Amino acid sequence: MELQTSLVRLSSLFFLSFHAILFIFIYLTFPQYASAGILGNQSDKLALLEFKSKIIEDPQGLMDSWNATLNVCKWPGVSCGHKHQRVISLNLNGHRFAGSISPSIGNLSFLRILDISDNSLHGVIPPEIGQLIRLKTLNLSFNFIEGEIPLTLSRCVNIVNLIVDHNSIEGHIPDEVGSLTKLEMLYLKNNNLTGNIPSSIGNLTSLRELYISYNDLVGELPDTMANMRRLTIFGASVNTLSGEFPPVLCNLSSLILISLSFNKFRGVLRPDIGLAFPNLQNLYLANNYFTGSIPASLSNCSDLLRLDIPTNNFTGNIPLSFGNLKNLLWLNVRSNQLGSGAPDDLNFINALTSCRKLEFLDIADNKFGGILPYSITNLSTTLIKLLIGNNRISGTIPREISNLVNLDVLNIKGTLINGSIPDSIGMLSNLKNLHMESNQLAGNIPSSLGNITGLLHIYLQDNSLEGTIPSSLGNCTSLQTLDISQNKLGGSIPKQVVALSSLSVLLNMSYNSLSGPLPVEIGNLTNLAALDISNNKLSGEIPHTLDSCSSLEVLFMKGNLFEGTIPPLNNLKNILHLDLSCNNLSGNIPNSIAQHFSLQNLNLSFNHLDGEVPVQGVFADASRVQIMGNINLCGGIKELHLHPCLKKANKRPKKHIALIIALTFGAIAACLTLLLLLLFCCKQKVKQRPSSTSSVGEGYTRVSYEDLLKATGGFSSNNLIGSGSFGSVYRGSLSQEGTIIAIKVLKLDKRGASKSFLAECEALRNIRHRNLVRILTVCSSVNFDGNEFKALVYPFMENGSLDEWLHRKEGEMLQKRLSILHRLNITIDVASALQYLHTQCHTPIVHCDLKPSNVLLDSNLTALVSDFGLARFLSDSGQDADVNQFSSVRIKGTIGYAAPEYGMGSQVSSQGDVYSFGVLLLEIFTGRRPTSELLEENENLHSFVKHALPGKVMDAVDQTTLYDKEPGDLTDILSCRSDFKSEIVECLVSILTTGVACSEEAPLARTNMGRVILDLISIRDKLSKTLVHSKKVKSSRKGE
């Protein structure tokens, strides 16, 4: 037994010794293999460090621990294999990275999963990615990646999931994609792909999901797709594909989703289509050119959830057999040619009552006739949206419509329906949108509507409703739109309704018989965009509270009995259309109306106005102003053909002449006495050392040096927020309430600093504009060392300067982003400030140093022009600056922004500011400074943009301009429909063209600032409409 044990031990020892010797032999003979695991892990680390170097923004700090000391397998987002410790997965999804994809990614030779989706990466897909032969999943979706799909990707023969949707990838789908025969998911949607779908795609016999939607693909589907028998999802909407309904799809019986919307398909659907797709759940064919009838065989698709076929040319009717679709959620046949006006057109509604899961039914904009069936009240209580408008339907609205308790949209507009609106409608507590306009409804507006407190939009216009406006509508505290125009309503306007501050889109009560005054509560509508109360019998004066409606763009009050004067309306900064015609208004036209440069149309006709007509603003263009029927108006521009205003002579009775002479001499004597006293006082003060009561900065409340020292914590560097040529700016607090201020301390040892102080005090003394920074107070004193001290105090702007938003500072991880609308609003703000300085000040002012660091942004991102240290006053001619004014003749701005004529000795002029504005505009939208190193030799920002217009505008635009998360997401627009994309590009071309026109080298070739403002506002209006429209289209495509 002991011998046997000894033999076993000896055998084990020999085994271990043999393997030890063998390992030493291999290590000494083939060291490269023995250390392969270690070296491979090291090469993965180097590759990822190189990948990290291309990431310019990491706001979450995920890569902070990616360093040489920590094991690469412990880095966040990195996973390694258990055996060889090589990187097999890199998951960096949704960490808001910005930068590009490093080619070093191709060195991760063991990588199986690469997911860097939902970031802000740009650049191209590196060809080196084709070296990842073990790769199974590649997800680059939701980035800003450009360029073409690299052909080298065909080497990744083991790839199963290829997901690159929601980028800006262009070019054709390469034929080589057909070599990726293991693919199960291929997502190419929301890019800029062009050309035909390659026939090689038929080689992907394992493919289950194929999305190519939202591109610019053309042609027909290749016949080879018939081989893709495992395909379950096919999305090809929003392209330019053509032909009949693809017969090749009818061979793919596994399909559960077919999306062909927004293409150019035509022809009829084959009658047995429902038999070809027994598993079909979703069929989207919207916005094509299909004709013929809706196949009844679709009722055989027992799993069908959504049938969406609007905006085609289908005829006939909805098959009654659709009542067998027990799982149906969505039926949309809007905008076809269905129905014939026959009495039985709506029989299918009775059949649809069997679809107890139905949530969406839209049959609007067809030719359905007949009486609205009572069975509509028996539709599923799960119904959320019911749209039957713009048909030839007659009858009345049944009281039991309230059975549909979950409705949030009820659209019965544009029909022949009559009778009254049932009171029971107030039981639809979930209703958000009510459309009953353009019918033949009569009776009262039911007060029960006030029970639906969540209502957003009410449209009841163009009916025969009578009675009064129910005050209970004031309970609808979420209401944004109320249109009750073109009815027979009477009585007064309830103050509860006009006090609804939620109204933000439209309040239209025009063409009724409303009487009485306009309630002063109208001032609560601070968010309202359009107000129309025209053609009623309203009387009294226009309430001054109307001036509080600062968001108004449209104000129509014509055809009433309003009297008195027109209130100032100073705060209607956004007004575009104003109509006060056909009233009994009197007095002068307020000058404030001429100050609204956004105003496009003004109608003051047929009133009793008198006095001089302004010549500025909208009054400078006769085609935009209507003032006929006011016989006592005078002056204005010659195109208005008014008689000149007469100067009234001062005729006084002779008996008063002696008294006047006596008073005059007495006043002169009193003035001489006061003058002598002032001279004596001044002589005494000259002997004293200047203090905080210095006359410098006259007109401002002044503070002492000690006050500012305390406010800034001893001018601590912790409170330093900026420094320029003539001064440093500190953050501080003067008041007990802790209001934050900005204090500019002048560097008086710098030449020109004192003149800069004087220039800024003088320039800002008497000017007031919402887009100009204002001086709160000044200090001209001595510090505790006896040295002269001067400072200016401004409101603190919490969003800093525009420069900080446009250009990332070194070491700053997350760049502030401005959307295209933000940037456009800022340019309009700056242009408005310059227009005010150049044309509306008593003495025109030239800023002379317009640049991003001198444009401040308040909490609402409203732009305010600052730093008037170089400002110059123009002479009466308005052409040249007075060379004896405050700033040095040699200082005329900042390199890159200063007009070129200044370098040749020309005097400063308003055209110089226009040049600076043009450069500023180009910088705002390109993200490039005028002195950028990215500009080629002998090229400036003006020429760079000019060469890019119009065809290469997207190459010039700062891509972060398109990174927007507001309603109407631009990023989504630019990655989908080409018509939206073209509209956005057109707006960008117009914006940059304006900047180029302002920055022309020749001063006389530059655009007038008034014209610039009008152009930019017009562009903004077009852009806003595009965004709203895109949002509507996107909502109509949900589920595709």
Question: How are the elements arranged and paired?
Answer:
Elements: H1 2-29, H2 31-34, H3 36-53, E1 55-57, E2 78-80, E3 87-91, E4 98-100, E5 113-115, E6 120-122, E7 137-139, E8 161-163, E9 170-172, E10 185-187, E11 192-195, E12 209-211, E13 216-219, E14 233-235, E15 240-244, E16 257-259, E17 264-268, H4 273-276, E18 282-284, E19 289-293, E20 306-308, E21 313-315, E22 330-332, H5 347-352, E23 360-362, E24 385-387, E25 409-411, E26 418-420, E27 433-435, E28 440-442, E29 457-459, E30 466-468, E31 481-483, E32 488-490, H6 495-498, E33 506-508, E34 515-517, E35 530-532, E36 537-541, E37 554-556, E38 561-564, E39 577-579, E40 584-587, H7 591-594, E41 601-603, E42 608-613, E43 625-626, E44 632-635, H8 657-686, H9 705-711, E45 720-723, E46 727-733, E47 740-746, H10 753-764, E48 777-782, E49 788-795, H11 802-806, H12 820-839, E50 845-846, E51 855-857, E52 863-865, E53 872-873, H13 910-926, H14 941-948, H15 953-956, H16 970-974, H17 978-998, H18 1009-1036
Parallel strand pairs: 3-5, 4-6, 5-7, 7-8, 8-10, 9-11, 10-12, 11-13, 12-14, 13-15, 14-16, 15-17, 16-18, 17-19, 18-20, 19-21, 20-22, 22-23, 23-24, 24-25, 25-27, 26-28, 27-29, 29-31, 30-32, 31-33, 33-35, 34-36, 35-37, 36-38, 37-39, 38-40, 39-41, 40-42, 41-43, 42-44
Antiparallel strand pairs: 1-4, 2-3, 45-46, 46-47, 47-49, 48-49, 50-53, 51-52
Helix pairs in contact: 12-13, 12-18, 13-17, 14-17, 17-18
